[in-house]
């Protein structure tokens, strides 16, 4: 594994026990310049995972606790009138930071959810006509709890498409749970995490990721995967062009953390499994059959071959 990426992973694993695979995917998203949606039941460490990432990097961090009465200006910022000079001054909101944790994102209204659309895509917010760029590196980590549906607002497809990955933390296995219990009782579970990488180092790593080569036959392979999602009766809305670009960048990041400057077919397939499922819309018949979006992507990967 890439030395710097391994250093970041080791730091996060001090706080998150038994979830090395999920941590690795978060790191891939960071290096690919993507955003992550963590969807899982309460208490499995979604918020802790986001904070472990922020604490392991020497960057700014803000947490937005989404509630039904959260307004768009609570996220983006607002203009405040100053009686002293008779002018309005713009006060940036918590979204103008490097890493943003939008906790319980589906618990706030669609109007407030849409406040994140511009900044997630264009890395800037507009307040009363004034554009404010966000610092780099920039990443939004949203969390939502699928178990409690009362009082929640499902994220619209346009916003789901802006997340590079949707991940599930899941329950730890018995061995990890025993280790967690021991560290908790010994007071070692919530030890302070110190930064192991600077923001400039992350930016430099992202530039190295962009230089990872993808052969033309692998580009054609990626296009074939995306095309296959658009030609199935069970899928009413296939992967978008943004999904294709996310998949390619994700594949570059996968190759990079594995210390390669070129992609292999497994990188493309792995990236497809991470970036495509949550972007698909299944037909009514497919939903009734209880086949998941992940199942469809696996079936497509079995059918589509490298040219």
Description:
- With 307 residues, the protein is α/β, with parallel strands linked by helices.
- 44% of the residues lie in helices and 17% in strands.
- The chain has helices at residues 3-13, 20-32, 46-56, 72-76, 110-113, 117-122, 157-160, 174-185, 199-210, 216-229, 241-257, 265-275, 284-288, 293-303; strands at 36-39, 57-58, 61-65, 77-82, 87-92, 99-103, 124-127, 130-133, 139-144, 165-167, 197-198, 235-237, 281-282.
- The strands form 5 sheets. A 5-stranded parallel beta sheet has the order 3-6-9-1-10, with helices on one face. Strands 2-11 form a two-stranded parallel sheet. The chain has a two-stranded antiparallel sheet with strand order 4-5.
- The two termini are 28 Å apart.
Gist of the model:
The chain is α/β, with parallel strands linked by helices and about 300 residues long. It has 14 helices and 13 strands.
What does the main sheet amount to? 5 strands, parallel
The number of helical runs is 14
Q: Please provide the ordered H/E string of secondary-structure elements.
A: HHEHEEHEEEHHEEEHEHEHHEHHEHH
Residues in β-strands, percent = 15-25%
Strand order of the largest sheet: 3-6-9-1-10
Give the % helix: 40-55%
Number of strands: 13
Cα-to-Cα separation, first versus last residue = 28 Å
Query: Structural class, from secondary structure content?
Result: alpha/beta
Computed CA radius of gyration, to the nearest angstrom: 20 Å
Q: What is the molecular shape?
A: globular
pLDDT averaged residue by residue: 90
Low-confidence stretches: none
């Amino acid at each position: 594994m890439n030395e710097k990426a391994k250093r970041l992973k080791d730091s996060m694993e001090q706080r998150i026990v038994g979830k090395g695979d999920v941590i690795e995917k978060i790191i891939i998203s960071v290096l690919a310049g993507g955003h992550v949606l963590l969807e899982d039941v309460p208490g499995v460490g979604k918020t802790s995972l986001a904070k472990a990432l922020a604490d392991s990097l020497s960057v700014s961090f803000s947490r937005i606790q989404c509630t039904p009465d959260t307004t768009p200006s609570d996220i983006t910022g607002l203009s405040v009138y100053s009686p002293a000079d008779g002018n309005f001054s713009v006060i940036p909101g918590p979204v103008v930071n490097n890493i943003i944790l939008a906790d319980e994102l589906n618990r706030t209204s669609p109007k407030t959810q849409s406040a994140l659309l511009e900044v997630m895509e264009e890395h800037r917010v507009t307040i009363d006509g004034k554009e404010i760029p966000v610092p780099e590196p920039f990443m939004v980590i949203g969390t939502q709890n699928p178990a409690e549906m009362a009082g929640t607002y499902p994220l619209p497809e346009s916003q789901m498409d802006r997340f590079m990955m949707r991940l599930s933390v899941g329950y730890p296995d018995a061995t990890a749970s025993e280790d967690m219990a021991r560290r908790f009782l010994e007071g070692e579970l919530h030890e302070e995490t110190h930064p192991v990488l600077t923001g400039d180092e992350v930016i430099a790593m992202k530039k190295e990721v962009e230089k990872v080569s993808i052969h033309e036959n692998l580009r054609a392979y990626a296009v074939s995967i995306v095309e296959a999602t658009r030609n199935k009766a069970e899928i009413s809305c296939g992967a978008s062009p943004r999904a294709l670009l996310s998949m390619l960048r994700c594949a570059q990041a996968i190759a990079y953390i594995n210390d390669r400057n070129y992609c292999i077919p497994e990188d493309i397939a792995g990236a497809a499994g991470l970036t495509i499922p949550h972007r698909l819309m299944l037909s009514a018949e497919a939903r009734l059959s209880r086949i998941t979006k992940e199942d469809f992507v696996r079936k497509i990967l079995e059918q589509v071959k490298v040219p």
